Automatic annotation (TrEMBL):
Keywords assigned by UniProt, alphabetized: Membrane, Transmembrane, Transmembrane helix
Species of the source: Halomonas sulfidivorans
Major facilitator superfamily (MFS) profile domain boundaries: 11-392
The name this protein goes by in its record: MFS transporter
Keyword Membrane on entry: yes
Keyword Membrane applies: yes
Residue stretches spanning the membrane: 49-69, 81-98, 104-126, 138-160, 166-187, 212-236, 248-270, 279-297, 303-326, 338-362, 368-388
Length: 404
């Protein structure tokens, strides 16, 4: 090993560890809320529709604020932008635990905005630091997201019981975010080269003219809609089948924990084929099967349902993020496509939790809600057939964006 390669290797290992630590913080703010919704509703008197808005708000913020990430990275650098996002996340986590209903919504908004910015930055940072293995390293990052989501879902009720209320349970996740902020500020990779290095071509307007960019965005939106419906409403739907709030929370937490396996394995699976369509259809089929088993089949099938849903959702999200780096030729285009796919995709995804809240407000049957969820899976499969093809966005010699 040369003297020059040792610092590079240390930088790579350090970056991976920081990426995992930051990724751990990008889901507990969302998943920790769902098991506590009934307690929140009883204490605050919020209607099912208002609770639906509460679950929708952070997902909507993911979409609204994601396009800010490339803009901020260009002006203050990606490292400082991620520092800012972590600071906002901590503020949101602390604020939503204060004894005020408006603070609950404002804190949730801030947390969603911070996650939208940070989540958009990380795929482009991965592409910059690991251009040759960006797809596989995206799987590692996705695994960290899934682990954070599982911890948030599984520990929210025990933390509420231990700390004396749901407000303290929500606040407690600020500690993990604080650790990530300190580690990032102290150890973040510093480079004079930003994600959005000056380069002709590849503007957002040009990107919007590429069907491939829309296909990736719509796939991201539909599969994310299912993910945030699960984060926001699965415990409530399970409780309507007779599960206790603790068991419903643990079932969702176990499902998110299973996502670790497919989040890491799906990018490897996708490499075996010429394109990613077979892998995408496989994981989406698991999502459909898991949802049906949990919401419609006999209660004895709950654990196979948990496993299938976890494998499907971990794999579909990991592959959707992987497509951002596989469908672009460089980190600049990855940053642009990440902003579009996550910005537009999460805005679309926010309609899912809100729709379920409306259906519950109207006292629609669980059978009808299950059908709606399966239709969303079908839409995701249709977009997967387009986005999963072996194509890529690139710039020609004149700097014009094209697909090949």
């Amino acid at each position: 090993m040369t003297t020059e390669s040792r610092p590079n290797r240390r930088r790579l290992i350090l970056f991976l560890l920081l990426m995992v630590l930051v990724g751990l913080n990008l889901r507990p703010a969302l998943s920790s809320l769902a098991p506590l919704l009934l307690r929140i509703q009883v204490d605050t008197g919020l209607s099912p529709l208002a609770i639906g808005a509460l679950t929708t708000l952070p997902v909507l913020c993911l979409g609204v604020f994601a396009p800010l990430a490339p803009w901020l990275a260009k002006r203050i650098g990606p490292e400082r932008t991620l520092t800012l996002a972590l600071g906002i996340l901590i503020a949101g986590l602390l604020l939503r635990g204060t004894p005020s209903v408006p603070s609950l919504f404002i804190g949730t908004l801030l947390a969603g905005a911070a996650i939208g910015i940070a989540g958009t930055l990380l795929p482009a940072l991965v592409k910059r630091e690991l251009p040759g293995g960006a797809d596989l390293m995206t799987g590692v990052y996705t695994m960290a997201l899934c682990l954070g989501g599982a911890l948030g879902a599984g520990l929210s009720i025990p933390l509420a019981d231990l700390l004396g209320g749901w407000r303290f349970s929500l606040i407690s996740w600020g500690l993990l975010a604080g650790i990530a902020l300190v580690a990032w500020v102290s150890l973040m990779p510093r480079t004079p080269r930003a994600i959005t290095t000056p380069q002709a071509g590849g503007s957002m307007r040009e990107l919007l003219g590429q069907p491939l960019a829309w296909q990736v965005m719509l796939l991201m939106g539909t599969q994310s809609s299912l993910a945030y419906i699960v984060f926001g409403w699965l415990p409530t739907l399970l409780q309507s089948r007779g599960y206790s709030e603790a068991e419903a929370g643990w079932l969702m937490g176990a499902s998110v924990m299973v996502q670790l396996v497919s989040a890491l394995g799906a990018p490897w699976l996708a490499r075996f084929g010429r394109d990613q369509r077979p892998a995408l259809l496989l994981v989406l089929g698991c999502v459909a099967s898991g949802l049906w088993l949990l919401l419609q089949a006999d209660i004895q099938w709950r654990w196979p349902g948990v496993v299938l849903l976890g494998l499907g959702q971990g794999g579909s999200f990991s592959l959707a993020l992987t497509l951002i780096v596989l469908r672009t030729a460089n980190s600049r285009l990855s940053g642009k496509l990440s902003g579009l796919a996550q910005g537009g995709g999460y805005t679309l995804a926010a309609m899912g939790p809100l729709a379920v809240g409306v259906l519950l407000q109207l006292e629609v049957s669980l059978d009808a809600i299950t059908l709606v969820l399966l239709l969303i899976v079908a839409a995701a499969a249709a977009f997967a057939m387009l986005a999963g093809r072996n194509r890529r966005l690139d710039l020609d010699k004149s700097g014009k964006l094209f697909t090949h």
